[in-house]
Structures are given as C-alpha cells and as structure tokens.
Design brief:
Order of helices and strands: EEEEHHH
Shape: globular
Low-confidence stretches: none
Strand order of the largest sheet: 1-2
Radius of gyration: 13 Å
Structural class: alpha+beta
Helix content: 25-40%
Largest sheet: 2 strands, antiparallel
Length: 86
C-alpha cells in the first residue's frame, strides 16, 4: 500500500500495484521500521517520522483525526517544496 494525498486533499492508502516507480529517491527525513501485524498485516513501513515512529498515528490518519491530518498536510507541503527546489 502507498499513502498518498487523494484528489480530495485527504490521506488515503492505495494498492502499490496501481503505480510504477520511476524515481526511487526518498525524502531525507524519512525513516524505516518493521512491524509485526501478522502474515496479512503491515510488516514494514517507510515514511515520515510520525508515520513510522507512532504505531497509532496511521489509525488516527485513517480516522481523519485533525492532528494526524495536519501532520500529513505539513509533510505533503514540505515534500512539494523540496521537489520544487531541486
């Protein structure tokens, strides 16, 4: 699954099979962690610190909790700025 900003501006998870990676570069502040959510659950995650470091953050994001949505929006804005400066 891939976490992206949808057409509505909200965070949504999409199946990775819908995409082709054309540039494997990652933002400098991204992290990696393993998870043990069973055979069919999340096993690893790459992303911004809140997404990786706080296992409850993803649930808050899916539930559209305002603080989690604000972090997501800030990360999207920072990434867009980083890309524009390249």
């Amino acid at each position: 699954m891939v976490l992206l900003e949808s057409d509505t501006g909200l965070a949504n998870w999409f199946p990775i099979e819908l995409f082709e990676v054309v540039d494997g570069a990652l933002p400098a502040n991204w992290r990696f962690a393993t998870r043990d959510e069973g055979e069919t659950g999340l096993q690893a995650i790459w992303g911004y610190p809140e997404l990786v470091d706080d296992p409850s953050y993803n649930e808050d994001l899916v539930e559209r909790e305002a603080p989690a949505a604000a972090v997501f929006a800030a990360q999207v804005a920072a990434y867009r700025k980083e890309v524009a400066e390249e």
